[in-house]
Amino acid sequence: MTHINHHPAPDLLRDFAAGTLAPSTALLIAAHREYCSHCQQQIANHEALLAQTALEADGGDDQPALDGMLETLLAHLPEHTVREPEALPTAIQPLTLHHRTFELPQVLARQLHQPTRWSALPGRLHQARLAVENSHLNFIHMDKNSGVPTHTHKGREYTLVLHGGFSDANGDYRLGDFVCLDQRHQHQPQTDSHEDCLVISALEGPLHFTSGLARLFNPLSQLFFR
Amino acid sequence: MTIATQVMDHTMAKPVPLDPQQQWLVQIAQHRDKLAFAELFRHYAPRLLNHARQHFSSDALAEEMVQETLTKVWLKAHLYHRDKGQVSTWLFTIARNVRFDMLRRQRARPEQLCADEIYLDLESEADAHSDNERLDRPIIEQQLKHYCAQLPPGQRQVVQLIYFDDRSQQEVADALGIPLGTVKSRLRLALAKIRELIDDTH
């Protein structure tokens, strides 16, 4: 397990434990958890605490709806231990770009049902969409020595580093780091000359490019980055 | 302190006895004991129902959540180990996953992204933003100019005025003597064309 410097905010971990996050955001947190023992423990703590709140108080006796339910269950529960078949592992497609294969956290790898279709963006960037129910995530690959033009976000952007690393004015982000950005942050992610970078992002609103001609991306950004 | 560490601490003395909830699960897992299940049901079902009602306004759905959760407890009892923590924590995570799936089943409808939604922001973007910074990344500027050069004249003119000269869509319409709708549609076509060109070159 790698050493992680940037973690999801405590309320995100709590909402993850409570099961109230959107599926796409929940997937990112689950992927971060695979890298980060600290957050694994935090999530377990939240679960224990939420369980206490939800299930330890007295339930009260006035629940007539439950009498019939118990009878129904007792009449229909299977006698023998039915080992539920483990969910069949779908044939997992590797994530490849230009003949390179990237290793992904399991929760993400299991989502790759089809070969990834990359589209190229100006500036040596590639982007691929990962459909998640009625939403999606974006893989974004930045080549060595490249970057996304300065932009802000209309909503929140959650980003998880899956390979290499990138920097912006606020810091350096390496494998497993989880970054949350919103409209208060203007940033310009950038790779160095040694290593490329693969991230996955969940975007609540479109990117908003703020520098010069790159504003031409604004309408396009909804095609690129959503 | 987790149960696991408690067990470790006392290994030399005597094994830590199972609490009643854990005993129910062991009975269910090893003996398919319906009496133990009924005990567990009477203890947890009312609590689960209160919990479920906080998430579902419909009583029927709240009850469905309880029934599905407790059915899973029966089926998965052998998967519980005391080092997973309290029974209530384990049960909570089962209930959470049941609820998560129920909510998705309710909401699941394919959402279609239509072009009007994609381009809706165009005008406010152009108006709201009139700074005229230099582009920091020459490579992008160069590529975009290259693509713009391949647009039909009418579209290129509109892109030029709006993105290079920072004019609003209304100003462009006035300057060219064409309806605002035409400006919008030319812009839309231009952006789609650029998208196509970018894809084709890679």
From TrEMBL, chain A:
CDD domains per UniProt: cupin_ChrR
Q: Which domain of life is it from?
A: Bacteria
Annotated ChrR-like cupin domain residues: 117-201
- One Pfam family this chain carries? Cupin_7
Q: Which InterPro entries match?
A: Anti-sigma_ChrR, Anti_sigma_zinc_sf, ChrR-like_cupin_dom, RmlC-like_jellyroll, RmlC_Cupin_sf
Q: What is the protein name for this chain?
A: ChrR family anti-sigma-E factor
Which species is this UniProt entry from? Ferrimonas pelagia
